[in-house]
Each structure stands twice: as C-alpha cells, then as structure tokens.
Write a structure and sequence with these properties.
Strand order of the largest sheet: 1-2-6-5
Order of helices and strands: EEHHEEEEEHHHEEEEH
Helix content: 25-40%
Largest sheet: 4 strands, antiparallel
Number of helices: 6
Number of strands: 11
Length: about 230
C-alpha cells in the first residue's frame, strides 16, 4: 500500500490523500487498526480484493484521524449518519470532517477542518470502457450534461468527470445516490474547474473540483464552507 498527498492545490482547510492498494495483499495486515465490528464487516466480503479494499482504506482513515485526535487508530470514535455516511462521533465541535471513496486499486481520503468547512465529499471511479454510459445518461444526467457529453471529443471521459462530481456533491451532504442525480448539474468551466448547479436548496451553495486521478480513473472533491452551510 502506498499513501501520498493528492497533488492538487486544495481549498484552505482540506487535505486529501491517494491510497494505492495492493489487492493481492493479506487483509489481516490492517486488523490492528480496526474495531471488532470492522474486522467482521471485512470478513463478510467473498472476494479477497474487496476485503483488502475495505480494510486497508478504513485502517488508513483511522490512522490519519488518529494523528489529529491524538489517540490510537482503533480508538477513533466513528459513527454513521442516517444515510450511512461515517463521521467522527466526538464530543468537541471541532472534530474533523472526513470522507472516503475507493474504486479498483485506488482510494481517495479527504479530511477537513470544521472551523472552515461545513460539508465534504469525494468520489473516485474506474472509467470502465465497457459500461453503457448512454443508458445512465438518460436516467441520471440533466439535458445540459447530456449535450456536453455527446459534444465532447472524449464522451466517456466527459461522462465520468460529471459522474464523480455529482456523487461527491451528494456525498458531501450525506445523501449519496439516494438523492436524484438530476438535481445536480456539473459543468466544466473555461478554466477547467467544475461549476455546480443544484435544484435542491439543501445542496446550495456547493463547490466542486476535479482531482488529478490515476490513469483510467476520474475523481472529484466537493465541499461547502462553514459560513455558507450555516446560512
């Protein structure tokens, strides 16, 4: 496993890391930093690669949070929101925000300072060359997004850029894909940034950016600053 800071210039108050996974390694290597319940959860996966993906990513998240909380990784108090989004279940108002996503042999982990950031979400996807993106366009993308994907020189790359942007936004507010994906429109601006347009008031105002993903992957970060979240 290799952990390295994400190469992008990130917003103030947010740190992100890329975790490169060895899916053929022994998942038991991560056991010391996991809770009993997390070990049991990892063991339920049928495929070794899935056990490694979950265990290694969760253990790394715990290590990074433990550095900020000055405790052992297995003692970091993690809870889950109503939609399953994990959070630091601490007694202090400045407990760090975090979000994580993994796909294939890579994971992205983001941690934010709650004095600056109110909501945080990330996503990474392996750009499957066999996936029927046109079927997904019809049910998950806005007409503007569909037009942009069809007009792109690389429609598949344009699709995945918007897909990870959408999911990062929805993960930031803790709804994930339970929220209608068409309520979020991701647009690539002239300077290469991501503009977010949301129909739902619960998602406004939200910021997003593409992350420099490994070859064959797409990744995005979404966030809302503390002052905007409290408005």
């Amino acid at each position: 496993m290799q952990l390295s800071p994400w190469p992008n210039d990130l917003p103030a108050g947010i740190d992100a890391w890329r975790l490169d996974l060895n899916l053929e390694s022994d998942p038991l290597q991560s056991w010391p930093d996991l809770t009993v319940d997390e070990r049991a959860h990892a063991s339920r996966f049928a495929r070794c690669a899935d056990r490694v993906r979950f265990a290694a990513t969760r253990a790394t998240v715990r290590r990074l949070l433990a550095q900020r909380l000055a405790c052992c990784p297995s003692q970091v108090p993690l809870g889950k929101g109503s939609h399953g989004k994990p959070f630091v279940d601490g007694d202090t108002l400045d407990s760090p925000l975090f979000n994580v996503a993994h796909s294939g042999s890579h994971a992205v982990i983001a941690i934010a300072d709650t004095r600056r950031i109110g909501d945080l979400g990330v996503d990474i996807e392996c750009c499957d060359g066999e996936a029927d993106i046109h079927a997904v366009l019809d049910i998950a993308f806005t007409p503007e997004e569909c037009d942009a994907v069809h007009a792109a020189s690389d429609p598949r790359a344009a699709f995945y850029l918007r897909w990870v942007g959408k999911e990062a936004v929805l993960k930031a507010v803790g709804t994930g894909l339970a929220q209608d994906l068409r309520s979020v429109c991701i647009r690539r601006t002239d300077d290469g940034a991501l503009a977010v347009e949301c129909r739902s008031g619960a998602l406004r105002p939200m910021n997003a950016m593409a992350l420099a993903a490994p070859r064959g992957y797409a990744a995005a970060l979404a966030w809302r600053t503390k002052e905007h979240r409290d408005e």
